[in-house]
Design a protein that fits this description.
alpha/beta, D-Maltodextrin-Binding Protein, domain 2, seven-stranded mixed beta sheet, two-stranded antiparallel ribbon
């Protein structure tokens, strides 16, 4: 068996023409044509038929594509694992973490991690997408993506906060304006949390300010501009803020996500383990169970469930 035959076959399938496949493989087009013809002759079956300048899969060729994609993914995973087995705990790790967790003290214990692993360097980001992937991520969402390994870490609590001097002057909620966050990523469970808090406690409050996200809303609330929905780990620890009288806590599940190919990458696992330990120690504060001064809110203790792996 010649694995290069599959490589050339896969390139033509992906790019549609001999010329485009040759460019991707950095070979002459005649080399691609010769390898495909050799592959078809060895198998005794036609894999492509010509349609103008393009090559179109025959039924036999189409039947092989799904298995070929699976084999390529498995080979890539094996190659990745072999490379990592020869490495120590060193190199870059890209971690995606919501800004409010970073502001709320998640990194306070990072010095101990870096002392233990001095050759690990971390790039922190507050966003993650298919075009801009991270090695691991902390994500607050109703459900995790099915293609990633996911572990639920409890929940992030959100409530309503305002400057304490405003709270002292206004025992009710009718006097508060609403600080609106318009730059949040459109994650439906968070939008539902914010909408629930506003409709339940400040349904008639006018919008008095708009801002990009949590950090800006926190600053505006501190300045006494109005009331804002904030993560409890920020609002409760800020001596200038208090929860609105009677405001409840709305919880959003928190997940640690990791791509399957990174589960054996030592530097990624080392940081994941550190974040797990840190978050376990702060689970009650993140959930908002401690409450703010003057809050009548009580939340049931959070339970940390066992690891969950997405179906493969």
């Amino acid at each position: 068996m010649d694995w290069d035959d599959f490589k050339f076959f896969s390139a033509v399938v992906r790019h549609g023409t001999v010329r485009a496949a040759a460019k991707a493989l950095d070979v002459h087009p005649s080399t691609v044509t010769r390898r495909i013809e050799h592959f078809e002759k060895r198998l005794g079956v036609k894999l492509f038929k010509r349609r103008g300048q393009s090559l179109v899969l025959t039924s036999a060729g189409a039947a092989a594509v799904g298995d070929l994609d699976r084999i390529e993914r498995e080979l890539s995973t094996i190659e990745h694992a072999l490379k990592q087995s020869a490495e120590g705990v060193a190199g870059w790790v890209r971690a995606s973490v919501p800004d409010y967790l970073l502001l709320g003290g998640l990194l306070d214990s990072l010095g101990g991690f870096l002392d233990r692993y001095p050759d690990v360097w971390i790039e922190w980001t507050t966003s993650m997408s298919a075009e801009d992937p991270a090695d691991l991520a902390l994500v607050a969402a109703a459900e995790p993506p099915l293609d990633l390994i996911a572990r639920e870490l409890g929940a992030v609590g959100w409530s309503l906060y305002a400057k304490r001097t405003l709270l002292a002057r206004s025992p009710g909620t009718q006097a508060f304006g609403w600080i609106e966050m318009v730059g949040l990523q459109p994650e439906q469970s968070l939008l539902a949390v914010l909408s629930t808090l506003r409709q339940r406690h400040l349904p008639q409050a006018p919008s008095v300010a708009r801002c990009a996200g949590v950090a800006e809303a926190l600053s505006l609330a501190r300045a006494g501009v109005g009331a804002a929905a904030l993560p409890c780990l920020l609002g409760d620890q800020d001596q200038r803020l208090g929860r609105l009288h009677g405001a409840e806590v709305e919880a959003q599940p928190l997940w640690l996500l990791m791509a399957p190919e990174n589960r054996r990458t030592r530097r990624v696992r080392a940081l994941a383990d550190h974040l797990l330990e840190t978050l376990h120690g702060q689970a009650e504060r993140i959930r908002g169970n401690g409450g703010a001064l003057g809050s009548a809110c009580a939340i049931a203790p959070v339970e940390i469930p066992p690891p969950r792996c997405a179906p493969r």
